[in-house]
Amino acid sequence: MAYSFCLYIDPGTGGMLFTILFGIFGVAVFTLRALMIRIKYRISGGKSAKINDKKIPIAIFTDHKRYWNVFEPLLDEFEKRKQEVIYMTCSEDDPAFNKHYEYITCEFIGEGNKAFSKLNLLNASVVVSSTPSLGVFQWKRSKNVDYYIHVQHGANDISMYRMFGTDHFDGLPLSGEYQVKQIRQLEQMRGIPEREAPLCGIPYMDAMKKRLDAAGPVPPHERTVLMAPSWGKSGILSRFGEKLIDALISTGYKIIVRPHPQSYASEKEMLDKLMSKYTDESKVIWNRDNDNFEVLRQADILISDFSGIIFEFTLVFDKPLIYTDTNYDTSPYDVSWINETPWTFKILPQLGLELNEGNVDRIKELIDRCIDDPTFRKGRDKARAETWIPMGNGAELTVDFIIKKYNDVVAKQKSEKLKMKENNKKTGKAKRRLNIK
Hints:
- By secondary structure, this protein is of the alpha/beta class.
- It has two domains: 41-202, Rossmann fold (3-Layer(aba) Sandwich); 206-387, CDP-glycerol glycerophosphotransferase, C-terminal domain (Rossmann fold), CATH 3.40.50.12580.
- It contains 16 helices and eleven strands.
- The protein has helices at residues 11-43, 47-51, 68-80, 112-119, 177-190, 203-215, 236-239, 241-249, 263-266, 268-277, 293-298, 309-316, 343-347, 363-372, 375-387, 394-436, and strands at residues 56-62, 85-89, 104-108, 124-129, 145-150, 224-227, 254-257, 285-286, 301-304, 321-324, 352-355.
- A six-stranded parallel beta sheet has the order 8-7-6-9-10-11, sandwiched between helices. A five-stranded parallel beta sheet has the order 3-2-1-4-5, covered by helices on one side.
- Helix 12 (309-316) links the parallel strand 9 (301-304) and strand 10.
- The N and C termini lie far apart (87 Å).
C-alpha cells in the first residue's frame, strides 16, 4: 500500500517564511558585496581610511527628497543650536540645498547601491534616518558608527514596517505608548536588548500645524475630494481603479488624485493606464507636488487606505476620512508577529467611514455623511491623544535626544581612552619593575 503525505502551510505563515528566507538571502548577498568593497579599498591603497578620516558628530540620511518635511524641523532646530550636522540625501534636487544653512552641510551621496556603499563605510558618532531595514538589505551597520536612531515618517504603528524594519536601530523616538508596547513585544520575541524609545512627539506634524495656523482659513470653494492611496496590491488604485474614479466623477465634486510616489516606479503600467484615460482636469486632477500641504489644505475629505497621510489630514487639518476595508496582508510586516489588531485599523472607524466593494457606487452618500457628521471629530481628538504625544515641541525633544546620545558616545569614548591610558601606564610600570629586577 502506498502512502502520500502533504505538508500544509497556511498563507500567512508561508508569506512570513518567504520574507524571512528572502531577508537572509539579501543579508548574505549584501554582506558579500560590502566585503568586496572593503577589499577593493584596501587594494587601492586604503582610500576608505582617507575618506573616513574625520568622525562626523551627527549624520542624517534620507533616501528621497519626499521626506524633507520630516527632516526640515530637525535641521532647523540643529541650526538654531549651532550644532554641526551632515545631511546626506539620495536626491540631487533635495530642498535642503536651497536652505543655506550655516551649521548644516548638505551632501548628495548618489542613489541606490552607490549611496549604501558610502553609508556602510561611514564614520560617525550618531546616524539618524527615517529609512527602515537597516542591517537587512543593502544598508548595513557601519563598524565606525556608534549609534543609529530611527525617526518615523508617519503617526501610526511602528510595527507596520516590512519585517525586521527597526530591529537594528539603537534608539527609536516615538509618539505613542502603543508604539512603545509594540517595540517591546518585538524585542522580547526576537531576543533584542531593550532600546531607548522616548516619547518625543511628531516634529513634522507640529511644523505642519504651525504652518496651517499661519495660513488662515481656506476661501469658499467647491466641495473637494482628495484620493491619496498607498501603493501595492492592497492600495486603492490597484483594488478599485476605474470603478472608484468613475463613481467620484459622477458626484460632480472637484476630484484630486495624488498617487503614492512609489506607484510611479513599482506599478507604473497600472498608473499610466489610469492617467492616460482620465486626462480631463475638469473631472480629475492628478497631483504630484513634492509638498502636500496645499492639496491637504484645499481638500474637504480624504479617501485613502493605510497610507500615513490619513493622520496628517485628520489630525493636523482636522478633517474627515473615507478609508478602505482592512483586508490587508500583514504577513510581510512586523505586525504579523504581534497577536493583536494594529492601532491604525482600530482607530480608523472613529475617523470616518469604510469604503468597500459593496458601497463604491454610493460614494457621494459616504462623502456627504462624513463631512456633515460631527461625531468623527471626537474620534480625531481620541487619535491625537494616543498617537501624538506630546504635541507642539517634537523637534526640540527629538533633537534633545539625538544630542544626548551624541554626548553619551563622546563621554564613553573619552572614558575608554582614559582607561586605556591608565592600563598602558600600569603595563609600563610593571615592565620597568621587571627590568630593574
